[in-house]
Automatic annotation (TrEMBL):
Signal peptide: 1-16
Superkingdom of the source species: Eukaryota
Keyword RNA-binding (UniProt): no
Catalytic activity line of the entry: Preferential cleavage: Arg-|-Xaa, Lys-|-Xaa
GO function term, MF aspect, one: serine-type endopeptidase activity
InterPro entries for the chain: Peptidase_S1 (IPR050430), Peptidase_S1_PA (IPR009003), Peptidase_S1_PA_chymotrypsin (IPR043504), Peptidase_S1A (IPR001314), Trypsin_dom (IPR001254), TRYPSIN_HIS (IPR018114), TRYPSIN_SER (IPR033116)
Protein name as annotated: trypsin
UniProt cross-references to Gene3D superfamilies, sorted A to Z: Trypsin-like serine proteases (2.40.10.10)
Family assignment from sequence similarity: Belongs to the peptidase S1 family.
Amino acid sequence: MFRLLIGLSILGLGLAGTTFQSGGLPMPDGRIVGGTETDITHYPHQISMRYRGNHRCGGSIIASNIIVSAAHCVNTLKGVEDLSIIAGTTSTIWPTGQELRVREFIMHEKYRSLNNDYDVTILILDGDFVFNESVQPIALAKERPEHDTVVTVTGWGTTSEGGVISNNLQEVEVNVVENAKCKSAYSITLTSRMLCAGVNGGGKDACQGDSGGPLILNNELLGIVSWGTGCARPKYPGVYASVPELHSWIVATRDANAKVGSIDFL
């Protein structure tokens, strides 16, 4: 089953002000497939994109008022009225941290929903996050690593296909899969703007709810969780929008909309 990884609308958490601290109904514990629980201070760039209070997708902070995520997370939305970003929280059940509304999103002009090529969007926030140990921007990778390189994906996605959204942030290590090998699984749907990662035999992967979230290497954003066939299936790696191939667009769009002086190391 082909998957996009947009979150299931399970949580019913309402919007608050700039600082968010609210409760919700308990849910069964879950995790990114094959992963373990982690803390937001280890991945302070990670955010939860909320639609009408529900976790929808992941994303990464790249400036105090700019998030990068997957285009397929927003391409069906008619506007931004019900869209917000929470940063600095480990839990989706008892989120603590900072919340800002989305003012505008800009999808890559070449994005194609047919095969998720150029699956990247920039979200411009209606305010600025205050950076601290739980809220930080991440640098952008400029080069692809060699195949088999160990990389990390994080998120609140489901523990299995069709499962429940995780209570707490999860991390899992996977290996970069060379595109030639990945094409044997996905054929013509794979493009040079995509990067594959998984493990031999399956069992570790991003899943529903992880879309838009980060694939990282050496504290740099290497990929954006995009799509795949099922979750953690053998012979079907996860597919990510490749940041090195999309680097110039991300930087240009960020710089055109970021607050002056908000970030200077990307």
